[in-house]
Amino acid sequence: SLFFYSGILMSSKFPYLKAFIVFPFILQILGMIIGFCLNDNIDETFTVTDLIVFYFSSTFFIATIPAFLIALWAKAYRYTRYNVFAIVLISAIIAFCYSNIAGYIYMTLFETSMTFGTWLYSGALDVALLFSCGMALYSVLTLPLLLPKER
Questions:
Q1: Orientation of helix 2-9 relative to helix 17-37, angle to 10°
Q2: Which of 122, 126, 124, 118 is nearest to 102 (CA)?
Q3: How far apart are CA 20 and CA 74, in angstroms?
Q4: How many CA atoms lie within 13 A of 131 on its CB side?
Q5: DSSP string across 61-109
Q6: What is the rounded CA–CA span in Å between residue 62 and residue 31?
Q7: Which pTM value belongs to this model?
Q8: What average pLDDT does range 76-80 have in this prediction?
Q9: Which of the listed residues 33, 54, 84, 128 has the most CB atoms within 10 Å of its CB?
Q10: What pLDDT, on a 0 to 100 scale, did the predictor assign at position 46?
Q11: In whole angstroms, what separates CA 125 from the centre of its chain?
């Protein structure tokens, strides 16, 4: 069955399937590894299962959803591996917008008096710029390897 799945991923019938599956999956694994490396559970308050669920869900909502949106954009506009400038530009824009909107929604869950202007003024633009630079770097290093050579 492994050969069947690898045959589908390499198939010319579905040239963007690798970008849809492998691109977000690699980011999900990297995020979970980074989470475990930065773990500060010295007093062992949380079990390993709690940490796995937390790192999986936080990585999914923070990084994997924008990676999937970038892959979706690349498929919709039929990017090839040679569209490096377009990959960098669209990944930075998607990551910047996603982090600002998702961060604002997250903050309004805890502070109902928070406005979007206050959110931006309190340091959200710095975080969004850092996130967009990181996502653009990850995208330009990974996505061209997964996209088809020609349209």
A1: 110
A2: 124
A3: 9
A4: 24
A5: IIIIHHHHHHHHHHHHTT--TT-HHHHHHHHHHHHHHHHHHHHHHHHHH
A6: 9
A7: 0.86
A8: 93
A9: 128
A10: 85
A11: 18
